[in-house]
């Protein structure tokens, strides 16, 4: 069964996404035009907003997740990148990235804050605290 959904994350900068992938040991597949998923839309879940069944499986880039059968599609539309994934349990993405791809969202946020901090001349210290990440910025 397919459970294709859009990962709710606004991506404006591919370099930050690449950094998030590197942080999680994911492989960013530049210019890969398709991503692995169930392979056909069976109508059991709503389509992601703005996408048709024919759009599924097609992308501008992809993200390969080690030990997962499925991949994440990176689709460029209207000046932004959208991440499409099939969260069906047999694909293994949710097992690795957590519900709603929470680990990828967190890694993207960390990379974004790190970039902004560097641009503004701040020093950044990252700490792991009880399965979460704490960022401390200093002048």
Structural class by sheet pairing and helices: alpha+beta
Name the overall outline: globular
Number of domains: 1
Strand order of the largest sheet: 1-5-4-3-2
Provide the low-confidence segments as ranges. Answer: none
Strand content: 25-35%
Mean pLDDT score: 91
Q: Determine the oligomeric state from the structure.
A: single chain
- Strand runs, count: 7
Radius of gyration: 16 Å
How is the biggest beta sheet arranged? 5 strands, antiparallel
Determine the number of helices (DSSP H or I, runs of at least 4 residues): 3
| Distance, first to last CA | 51 Å
Helix content: 10-25%
What is the H-and-E element order? EHEEEEHHEE
Please provide a written account of the structure.
With 139 residues, this protein is of the alpha+beta class. It has one domain. The protein is 24% helix and 31% strand. It has a five-stranded antiparallel β-sheet, with helices on one face. It has a two-stranded antiparallel ribbon with strand order 6-7. The longest helix is centred in the last third of the chain and has 18 residues. The chain is globular.
